Amino acid sequence: MAFKMKDIVKNDNSVFVNGHYSNPEENPNYLAFKKLETMLDRMQSDDDTAVPVKTVKGFMTKIPSVFTGADLVGWLLRYVDLEDQVEALHIAHLMASHGYIFPIDDHVLTVKNDNTYYRFQTPCLWPSRVLEPENTDYAVYLCKRTMQSKQRLELADFEAENLARLQKMFSRKWEFIYMQAEAQIKVDKKREKLERKILDSQERAFWDVHRPVPGCVNTTDVDIRKTCKQNKQGCCKLGFLVPGGRISPTISENDLRPAQEILQLEIDVLKKQMSKSRMKISKVGESYIAHFEQYQDFDSLWGTTTEFSNPWITDNTELWDQESTVVAKDIPARRVKRWGFSILELLKDPAGTDNFTKFLAKEFSGENLKFWLACRDLKTLPQSQVQDKVLEIYEEFLAPNARDPVNIDSRVADIVKQNVQNDINRYCLDAAEEHIFKLMKNDSYNRYLRSDMYKEFLTGTVKKKYSRTVFIPKLPSFSGLTN
Predict the structure, then answer these.
(1) Helix H segments across 124-235?
(2) Residue 65: left (phi > 0), alpha (psi -120 to 50), or beta?
(3) What does 235-303 look like in DSSP terms, one character per residue?
(4) Which of 338, 302, 341 shows the shortest CA–CA distance to 322?
(5) Helix-helix angle 135-146:174-189, to 10 degrees
(6) Whole-angstrom Cα distance, residue 212 to residue 127?
(7) Taking the mean position of all CA atoms in its chain, how far away is CA 468?
(8) pLDDT digits 0-9 by tens, 178-236
(9) 324: helix, coil or strand?
(10) What is the four-CA torsion angle of 198, 200, 205, 210, rounded to 10 degrees?
């Protein structure tokens, strides 16, 4: 088997990559590799504690250097501190999935506790000593397989598809790849038959790890983003053959999810993604610009108003005093104009809340704002007062015989009633609060902006009403008449 020397470790502390040696300890799986390799060294030791490796003779055939899955599991139970056979099988699966051992007649790297034959991988192809190979190396390997007529070297279906894709990808240098494959075959023919058979199986196992069968996890992939995507529930297409997205394949049929369930989960996830509102970055930028332009004149730090001096750079706080006053005749027009931006801007201003309350009283819907303000105050109360306040709000606005009933539908009323009966907390009235807020926002607030009450504030007519003085003429003196 011919591999490029750049893929093989030169010593125990460095790996040759792209013209220089890098430390293998940078691999995130390095510690796990070392633990597995410690066990493998004991399995292949020269004493009686090693896994029994033998050459199986058949009719006109020999299978060199193999051991059974039962021998491997038995060795793990005997020489490793494991609790039961399930744990021993799990360790064996890890070794197989990382390419330390492999079945001689299967591309799926897993271990069965029976008489299936397995073989140890050569140390120079262990994952701790070999980095991710290039696609050109894989193309040479597949091309070499097509040049040999032996049945055991025939390409599987997925390998034939990979070869076709690689041939299309490297069409300009395919001739060079073909020449490399021919040169490697000439070298292989000089080896003995049994040695060639062992090396062919080890090379095939190496590529089963780095280019696994469709449905198996690539255990050499250390990109955390790909791993997270594979482990997402409902989006992992590997779930058909690898239950739960585990790093080591398993043969347990109980853990496998039905294909229909996997597809249904993926459909549900895609439907949720379609329901989310999405906006282009350019539109978001335009929205931010429009927002800041709208509020620029109302910012005391960056505003351009010339009516008052900037309180941030002077000692004059008249601007802030104007912003906090609740006396109708002293409210500036720029502050009233801000009420028209949204209902939240209106209710955030104490003077706006007071004016909106008077408007709703004329509309015979003042209980809506009273209820919403009571729910907002409920959020800030101490926990010891929450229960009494909830019952008070419910009895006043939501109960069947409430004093000031608000306009909510039966569905919302049932939700609130169930919340109050089961678990009283500061959020159990949220359904009714949200319903009333939408009602005020879509109906009452729009009528308020069109009303004379708001227009009088905006144009300053209110100031004139409050500032109007009554002239009382001076009466003539009647003191002279009495005389």
Answers:
(1) 135-146, 157-169, 174-189, 193-210, 224-230
(2) left
(3) T-GGGGTSGGG-SS----STTPPPHHHHHHHHHHHHHHHHHS----HHHHHHHHHHHHHHHGGG-TTT-
(4) 338
(5) 60
(6) 14
(7) 65
(8) 899 889 888 888 888 888 888 888 888 898 888 888 877 777 765 555 555 555 544 44
(9) helix
(10) 140
Banded model confidence at residue 46, pLDDT cuts 50, 70, 90: confident
| Residue 457 DSSP SS3 | helix
Q: How far apart are the C-alpha atoms of 250 and 231, rounded to whole Å?
A: 16
Distance CA 325, CA 332 (A): 9
Q: 298-315 as b/e, with b when 16 or more CB fall inside 10 Å?
A: beeeebeeeebeebeeee
**Which residues are CB-contacts of 104 (< 8 A; sequence separation ≥ 6)?**
63, 66, 117, 118, 119, 201
346 touches 339 (CB < 8 A): yes
pLDDT digits (tens, 9 = 90+) for 385-427: 999 999 999 999 999 888 899 989 999 999 999 999 988 999 9
Amino acid residing at 478: F
The answer to whether the beta carbons of residues 67 and 118 sit under 8 Å apart is yes
**Gap between the Cα atoms of 99 and 220, Å rounded:** 10
In one-letter notation, the amino acid at residue 119 is: R
Task: Please state, in angstroms and as integers, the Cα–Cα distance from residue 380 to each residue in 365, 373, 374, 377, 422, following that order.
Answer: 25, 11, 10, 6, 22
Of all residues in the chain, what percent carry a pLDDT higher than 90?
19
Q: Is 25 exposed, middle or buried (0-12, 13-18, 19+ CB in 10 A)?
A: exposed
Scored b (16 or more CB within 10 A) or e, 441-450 reads eeebbeebee
What is d(CA 373, CA 428) in angstroms, rounded to the nearest whole number? 15
Residue type, 346: L
pTM of the model: 0.44
Phi/psi of residue 397, each to 5°? -120, -25
Please name the amino acid found at residue 13.
N
